[in-house]
Amino acid sequence: MQDEFIESMDLGKQQKVLFTMDSAFSVQILTGIAGLVLITCLCAYLLIYNIMYLSVAGNIRYYGLLQTIGMSGRQIGYLVWRQMLLIGGIGTAGGLMLGSVVSFGVVPSVVKALGIRMGRGGEITVAFHPLILLLTVLIAGITVYIAGRKPVKMAVMCSPMEALGYRPAVRADKRRRESMAGRGRSVSPAGRIWRMAKEQIAKDRKKAGIVILSLAAGMSVFLCMATLLCSQAAREYNPSYRDFDMVIKNDTVQKEEPEERLQIFDQELLGKLNGIDGIAEIAPLVYTEIAVPWEPGFADQWMREFYEMWMTIPYEDDLAEYKESPENFGSSLVGIGREDFEALNEMSPQPVDEEDFLSGKTCLLFRNGLDLKNSDVEGKSVTCTEYGNRENARTFEIAGLVDENAYTALLGYPPTIIVSRQAVEEFAEEPVIFKAGIRYEKQRLSIWERILQTGGYQPSDAGKETEDAILSVMEDSPFHRDYSYESRIRMMEEAKKAQGNMMEAGIGAALILALIGVMNYINTFVGNIQNRRVEIAVLESIGMTGRQVKKMLLLEGFLYAAGAWGVTAVLGTAVTYMIYQSMNYMDADFMIPLLPVLGMMALSAAVCVSVPAAAYRKIEKEGIVEYITMPC
């Protein structure tokens, strides 16, 4: 969308549109938030529908008696709608009050925990618009109306005779009855109980589907929150190239005077760093200052494009000076190793021949934002001379352009030429190390630790000790003021600190939706038990023990949980992936955290099993006669 917008503006070479991080991904973030809002509305709809359905079903005889004394169906519908309006109004008002407390009290605290400051004093101000209030009331009203239509219709359409003899509809499947008759003698008692539990859920598939969908909605939101906060948390922030754990930079390279650019990574310092336990690899990048003499081919093409892109004066104004004194337009010759070349080659749309590059025959050029393509420079040659020594010259064949700025040292008007480290060492006597990537030894994890690992970078205590030792060596060097570093460990700690209490806030939102699903399940199962009192009494009267009845109910609860797991695994994961990618402005890998998911499954199973157990304990206190004679 942004690319299409930029193309439609028909910008010139020196015109650019830059998006801030918030603006660039605001559409994706708002889309993800809208998805969570839709799931919340779906959960609320399912809960309201289920409560209304159970309420109407429980009071259907009462509505039938009202019709016998002269109340019309229209009046009954008005009565039910009035009850819904009263309850919905009270709930909406309470929700608005609670939402106001959260918006004006909790939200600023969460934003401050993220490290965000606004205004002169850094205070967070909450903006409010009356349309938000109206939209909230409208959404709540529409949800209540849609969810209550069918229960109200059921109350209106039920005649007095049907109401007096009403029992929840059960869908009879002839093929299933015939199958039961054929297999009844061959199935063990445990198998019969398992089959009865499955068939009880299948009797009212619509109600069971609503409950499973409601539970799955809460689980899906939890899965989405846990995935966003775990997989895209601090461990996914990678500040370095080639996934190094630490990158140390020579800050003197950026100084203006050539004599101030020093070799801070001398042999003594490198020897001390190599002697630190826990370091697996040190990969230095070297450079030397060069000049690119003018020639009518590539050099003129590059400089002309550079001036059109970056300069406010025409190229012709400096052309004479460039031809006479190319040293005034310096650049750098960067040397990289085999691993760095392989990393660059993987990012390149057109791979470069490795043998030619490592032997010093070909080179790569840093594009530097110019409007040049590989086809514009491929096969051409670029000549460079040692800075201050025109006689030391070398020519390379151009193999392509790269955009990775990690391999740039000192940017100038002419191109930054990237060649093999061997070629730089042959060209210059003492190339300067401008950057060194350090990789720590990886801690061996057990199989169980690897299974529980949620992905991303997870520093070990040994890695922290290694990093402290590296910083100690750098601080003891004579150039302790002339370096800077990037650390994955430090970056992760800062990101975690910035994340603040977002994990708790996200889990809190998911728990609210999970509570809606659990309430839906409790209402359904308790109502189901009440409607099956006679059935349970008959089963016990023909020899089914209380333990078997309890086992059947527990299996029903477990099947509800398993159904919700299945829906979450398929639909929930798909929705989570889409929302994740819409908000994935850090290009983090999509990984589902195992421990939170296992905890969610265990908790949902415990809830789905404990509700039938509690309901049956209440029934156990009554006898068979009470089951049958108790009014529904």
Question: Can I get a quick summary?
Answer:
With 632 residues, the chain is of the alpha+beta class.
Layout: helices, strands, pairs:
Layout: H1 2-9, H2 21-24, H3 26-58, H4 60-68, H5 73-113, H6 130-157, H7 160-164, H8 174-183, H9 189-203, H10 205-231, E1 246-250, H11 267-274, E2 279-291, H12 298-310, H13 315-324, E3 330-336, H14 338-347, H15 354-358, E4 362-366, H16 374-377, E5 381-386, E6 389-402, E7 417-420, H17 421-427, E8 432-440, H18 447-452, H19 461-476, E9 483-487, H20 488-499, H21 502-531, H22 533-541, H23 546-582, H24 594-620, H25 624-629
Parallel strand pairs: 3-7, 4-6
Antiparallel strand pairs: 1-8, 1-9, 2-3, 2-5, 2-8, 4-7, 5-6
Helix pairs in contact: 3-6, 3-10, 3-21, 3-23, 5-6, 9-23, 10-21, 10-23, 10-24, 21-24, 23-24
Q: Can you walk through the features of this model?
A:
The protein has 632 residues and is an alpha+beta fold. Among the domains are: 143 residues, no CATH class; 255 residues, no CATH class. Helices cover 60% and strands 11% of the residues. The radius of gyration is 36 Å and the shape is elongated. About 1% of the residues have low confidence.
